[in-house]
Each structure stands twice: as C-alpha cells, then as structure tokens.
C-alpha cells in the first residue's frame, strides 16, 4: 500500500502545489492555450480543452521540440489513482510547453512521441530546472520508436551531462507504492524495464523504451501497432505518480 509519509520538495513552488492538492487548498496557475497544439481531431471534437484545476494534482502533457506533442498518452491512470488512493487529481492531462514557466504548476509531466527531434536551448534549460526543483517526467517511446528513443537519450545527455539514466531494480519503491508490480508485461515473449534519472537520492525521471502510453484507452488515431506496449502500464503510471508525491 502507498506510504503515508510526505517529505519536503526541493522547490517551494512544488511544495505549495502538492500540499494544495492533498489538503484541498487553491493552486495559482493559468490554463494552457491549446490553439497551436496538434490535438487528436476525434478527441478534441468530443471533449473541451483540458485546463489546470486548482486544489488537486494536475499532470502536464508536454509539447516539445518543434511542436511535437504527447497526445498519445492515456490519462486513465489519473482516474485509477483516485479509485485506489485518497489522492485527488485532474482526470485529464493538460497540454504544456516544455519551455513554459507554467510547467512548474505540475508536479508530474508525461512525454512521448515517435520519430526524431531535438530540444531547443530554452527547453533544455527548463527541463533541468523543472527536474532539479521537484518535477517528475514519465517518458516513453511511442510504438517503441527507435528514433524517438535515440533523440530522448541524446536530450537527457545534453541536459544532464554529469549523470546518466540507470536501469531500475525491481525492488525499487516505484514498483511497490500502490500496486506490487513484479514484472513489466509486454506483448509476446518480450520483456521490458524502466530506466531512471536520480538527483539527490530521488528518481526524478522515468524512461521506458517501450510504451507506458496505455494507448488502448487514448482513443482516436493513437495506437501501438509497431511497438511493444507494456500491458500493465496503467498500474506502473499510478505507482510513479504516487512515488513522486510521497517521496
């Protein structure tokens, strides 16, 4: 079961946002303009734009590179954690530019996609500041895209030349906060793993070369036809959100 201890965040900004979410207080912030984000057309017709909601945990859906979006990442884990714990969440991922100061209103952000890309200098700077001051990123290659994985690994090296991604052992708390996860279940006989970036003894970024996207719950044109999607991704994402809020 999820630990009850909540340790101080390195950033006062993040501490206020998380305490507000857990205690029901207000959170200052602004809705992100979605006018230039390549949203899924089928999804955008049926749902109003996702916006930051005060007083609860909000998670960002990153736009990065040259307008590359993370829309093919399911928000179902945000609903799931509400059913399994007392954590109150905005049940939709909110589009946020990686270079924007608005990112600091979100304790967790997701990042996914396919194909090659590069982060701009301002995006690199903001990513570093975000992760060094309490932020947490869940990143996975859409459809196990090797080009996206290569670009992401290069980006992490550029942002953090002094540290590197490390494979996370199955005994780590990220596998045991809400659900006990003994393995990452994939299609066929394929096995997967998680890699993490650690700062001051805390994992601040999780990367999976396979899909944590739970695309079966995204709808529209999103799929993982050519990749090894992790079947229990939703439970993994619930654990990751609980981990960053309680450690």
UniProtKB/TrEMBL annotation:
Residue ranges annotated for the DUF4159 domain, each copy included: 74-245
Domain of life: Bacteria
Listed InterPro entries: Class_I_gatase-like, DUF4159
Protein name: DUF4159 domain-containing protein
């Amino acid at each position: 079961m999820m630990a009850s201890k909540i340790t101080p965040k390195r950033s006062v900004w993040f501490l206020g946002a998380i305490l507000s979410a857990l205690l029901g207080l207000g959170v200052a912030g602004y809705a992100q303009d979605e006018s230039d984000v390549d949203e899924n057309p089928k999804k955008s017709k049926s749902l109003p734009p996702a916006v930051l909601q005060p007083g609860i945990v909000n998670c960002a859906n990153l736009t990065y590179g040259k307008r590359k979006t993370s829309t093919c990442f399911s928000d179902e884990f945000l609903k799931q954690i509400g059913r399994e714990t007392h954590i109150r969440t905005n049940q939709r991922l909110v589009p946020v530019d990686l270079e924007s100061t608005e990112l600091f209103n979100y304790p967790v952000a997701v990042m996914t996609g396919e194909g090659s890309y590069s982060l701009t200098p301002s995006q690199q700077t903001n990513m570093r500041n975000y992760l060094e001051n309490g932020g947490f990123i869940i990143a996975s290659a859409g459809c196990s895209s090797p080009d996206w994985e290569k670009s992401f690994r290069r980006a992490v090296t550029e942002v953090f030349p002094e540290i590197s991604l490390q494979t996370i052992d199955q005994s780590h708390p990220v596998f045991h906060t809400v659900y006990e996860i003994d393995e990452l279940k994939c299609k066929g006989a394929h096995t997967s793993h998680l890699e993490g970036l650690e700062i001051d003894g805390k994992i601040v970024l999780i990367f999976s070369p396979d899909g944590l996207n739970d695309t079966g719950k995204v709808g529209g044109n999103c799929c993982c036809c050519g990749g090894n999607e992790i079947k229990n991704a939703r439970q993994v994402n619930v654990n990751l959100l609980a981990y960053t809020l309680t450690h």
